[in-house]
Amino acid sequence: SYVVTQPPSVSVAPGETARITCGGNNIGSIRVHWYRQKPGQAPVLVVYDDYDRPSGIPERFSGSNSGNTATLTISRVEAGDEADYYCQVWDTSSDHWVFGTGTKVTVL
Amino acid sequence: DVQLVESGGGLVKPGESLRLSCAASGFTISSYTMNWVRQAPGKGLEWVSSITSSSSYIYYADSLKGRFTISRDNFKNSLFLQMNSLRAEDTAVYYCARSLRITNHFDYWGRGALVTVSS
In this complex, which of A33, A44, A86 lies closest to B44 when CB atoms are compared? Predict the structure, then answer.
């Protein structure tokens, strides 16, 4: 089955830019979705279809996807962005959803 | 407002069964694919199962090995997950989530139901 990998953690100072990667074989050819999950809460969609944002998600959240890496970028990071972030893809070879391993974003 | 509320979680012994429900409000589930995702304590998200709007297509994670059954009642606007032969490794918070189509993102999630399997 398709495997996607994320770095376990990313640390960033307030006001700086956080980049969270999601790696997979030719992932640029499939759509990637991103979720934010704060402790004790359900996941929330922050980017879908590689770079689209749901209503209510700030423009500071952006996405890109090319080659073997998809990236979620959080600009002007705020303390409230501290959370776990997961990427998600649909594996067409198995007809299964696959979540990345998750990345914990820490705001210094 | 769109709401998804899971219920039916609890503490069960290994080998026992449990049925989770997910009640939807603020929209009609008959127009959506519905999904279950679980998260073991301290672990990441794991997709469990998906069912298309008219139940024509159903998908399961391989790890379930036929022990779980997803179903829906569009008239009751509800989604279900029948879990049999439960194991300790099934201990998790179970979330229901909706998506427009089977390959679309999950735009709304419930708050989850905790299932604990322990002797």
Answer: A86
**Residue A97: HSE in the Cβ half-sphere, 13 Å Cα cutoff:** 30
A46 → chain B, closest CA residue = B107
Q: What is the CA radius of gyration of chain A?
A: 13
Q: pLDDT (tens digit, 9 = 90+) per residue, B66-118?
A: 899 999 999 999 999 999 999 999 999 999 999 999 999 999 999 999 999 99
Q: Is A9 on the interface with B (CB under 8 A)?
A: no
CB count within 10 Å of CB A72 equals: 30
Comparing CB atoms, the residue among B95, B105, B112 nearest residue A48 is B105
The answer to whether the beta carbons of residues B114 and B47 sit under 8 Å apart is: no
